[in-house]
Specification:
168 residues, alpha/beta, Rossmann fold, binds flavin mononucleotide, catalytic activity, Flavoprotein
């Protein structure tokens, strides 16, 4: 089988990621032909480890599932994707991405790619309604949009899979 295009797939610790990420995002993405280069925030990695979903995720990709930086001298474990999907994205990680804060491997890989010519990025965020009243929130979304990022809110009570359509 010819390997498909690489999708940089990133997830952070939103409620449900520990049980829904593999079924509703990673598996459907692999079925659509993407070769997955997955990076999780440290918290999301811990949650998926606890539920056993990390093993299911690993079985979907021949590449490492990352959550830590490599050691100096180690090979880079992922190719450089031209397409990224960050979903589900927490409010904290969206803010960090917009501000350029790279404090874990997930925010680092996204921050390195954001604004790169030829790179496409979709961010599906799951946040409480109160986030929309936070004075900085809209500015973060506007910053990402100005860099060409497509943003979309994920619903807690509907499958997340629809966000994959935004990659087309
Ligand atoms: C059970 C649980 C569910 C959470 N769900 C969400 C969520 O859906 N959206 C969100 O923005 N934050 C949520 N949070 C808060 C984030 O996990 C927290 O802000 C964390 O620092 C985000 O880190 P990360 O983006 O680096 O994974 C949740 C926290 C817990 C404990």
């Amino acid at each position: 089988m010819t390997p498909g295009p690489v999708l940089g797939l990133v997830a952070s610790s939103c409620g449900g990621v520990e049980s829904r990420f593999v079924t509703e995002i990673a598996e459907p993405a692999a079925l659509r032909g993407w070769r997955l280069a997955v990076t999780l925030t440290p918290t999301a990695h811990r949650w998926l480890t606890t539920t056993g979903e990390l093993e299911r995720l690993r079985a979907l990709t021949g590449l490492d599932v990352r959550s830590e930086s490599r050691l100096p001298g180690e090979e880079r474990p992922h190719p450089d994707p031209e397409v990224f999907l960050f979903a589900p994205a927490s409010a904290g990680s969206v803010a960090k991405l917009a501000l350029g804060l790279a404090d874990n491997q997930a925010t680092t890989v996204l921050g390195d790619a954001l604004g790169e010519p030829g790179v496409r990025m979709v961010v599906g965020y799951q946040v409480r309604d109160s986030r929309f009243r936070h004075p900085a929130w809209q500015g973060h979304l506007d910053t990402l949009a100005s860099a060409g990022v497509t943003t979309s809110r994920l619903a807690v009570d509907r499958p997340w899979t629809g966000v994959l359509d935004l990659l087309e």
